[in-house]
Amino acid sequence: MKAETLLHIGSEKFEEEVVRSNTPVLVDFYADWCGPCRLIEPVIERLSQEYAGKVKFVKIDTDANQDLAAKFEVMSIPTVMLFKGGKVKERIIGAAPAPVYKQKIESLFKAS
Q1: Which domains occur in the chain, in start order?
Q2: Is 26 a catalytic residue?
Q3: What is the DSSP-derived secondary structure letter of residue 78?
């Protein structure tokens, strides 16, 4: 059985899994009914395998976790945020092609 590279979490695990993470974290704010969210899902899954061990990948359902969506001002989905050291470093609103996500992830390693 392969290790799960994509965590589905809610508000109760956010602090532990994202804010206190020792590695950068890509957070995908999504909803099940959102077409563009489903469109980027395979892209996010592929990247989670490619960057396994280097970047943590987390999915947050905005319908079930409206407090987090409000806290991070998620106005439209999908919204992908990259966290490093517990802080938002990048924000991508809407569906984007894989190279856009890769470029943002790579920029996290270059930034100190």
Answers
A1: 6-100 (3.40.30.10)
A2: no
A3: S
